[in-house]
Amino acid sequence: MSDINHDTPLLRVNGLSKFYGNRLGCSNVSFELYPGEVLAIVGESGSGKTTLLNCLATRLQPSVGAVEYRMRDGQFRDLYRMSEAERRFLMRTDWGFVHQNPSDGLRMTVSAGANVGERLMAVGERHYGKIRETATDWLGRVEISADRIDDQPRAFSGGMRQRLQIARNLVTAPRLIFMDEPTGGLDVSVQARLLDLLRGLVADLGLAAIVVTHDLAVARLLSHRMMVMKDGHIIEAGLTDRVLDDPQAPYTQLLVSSILQV
Ligand SMILES: Nc1ncnc2c1ncn2[C@@H]1O[C@H](COP(=O)(O)OP(=O)(O)OP(=O)(O)O)[C@@H](O)[C@H]1O
Ligand SMILES: [Mg+2]
């Protein structure tokens, strides 16, 4: 795994809660994320993982609390005090978001090359030849052969679509990437290869990432640190190996012991 720069966090989360009416989504979450660090959010269905991720990625307005992000100029900005345009700009440049369902993160009726190239154009690249060259390079990095560049993702398998979504997100060299169950819909052998690929890319690029998963094996493979959620609360947090090898909270112990091999 890549080195983590512990000097200054990239993201600071303070007292974040989200209520849906009376129902709790997530409660009083605080943590810091450092450059190059991969954080896994694990927990059973309904525990609040997606709610938390969406509040961090400005896809959902929190009810209480602050999320601060360190911009490229070194200044921390409260994400929810930015204008909508500034947030959208961050999403396009500094951040990526990998959806569980690739069709939520891809344009299914434009070519694979355009799916990747579009993100480059959004950050100002205008030279057609260069866009195509970079897109081809990225398809290769996610193991999609160059002769599929003009195919639409609806002609791709589930695993290929997910790899294309990853290429589309990483092509602009973001500093932070959010992922919600990135291997969720795939069968086991496809999952394993995709995880290997993701791990390599994240390490090579020194990316910070927040990965939601209900699968402890995914957390083990990808993350440095993890947070365990239950009923909207973080009930345990720590280095991934420590949490999985020596869980402290009874619920985490149960979760770990219910998995034969992590
Ligand atoms: N739009 C919504 N309106 C009302 N309640 C919601 C909404 N979205 C989520 N919730 C509730 O918030 C809680 C947390 O849901 P969330 O989707 O964050 O869980 P999750 O951990 O991502 O689950 P899963 O593993 O099934 O995706 C649940 O009780 C859920 O019913
Ligand atoms: Mg979810």
TrEMBL record:
Annotated CDD domains: ABC_NikE_OppD_transporters (cd03257)
A Pfam family matched in the record: ABC_tran
SUPFAM superfamilies (UniProt xref): P-loop containing nucleoside triphosphate hydrolases
Broad class of where this protein is predominantly found: membrane
Gene Ontology molecular function: any one: lyase activity
Keywords: ATP-binding, Lyase, Nucleotide-binding
Compartments (UniProt record): Cell inner membrane
Record domain ABC transporter: where: 11-256
Xref: PANTHER family: PHOSPHONATES UTILIZATION ATP-BINDING PROTEIN PHNK-RELATED
Family statement drawn from the similarity comment of this UniProt entry: Belongs to the ABC transporter superfamily.
Name assigned to this protein: Phosphonate C-P lyase system protein PhnK
Encoding gene, per UniProt annotation: phnK
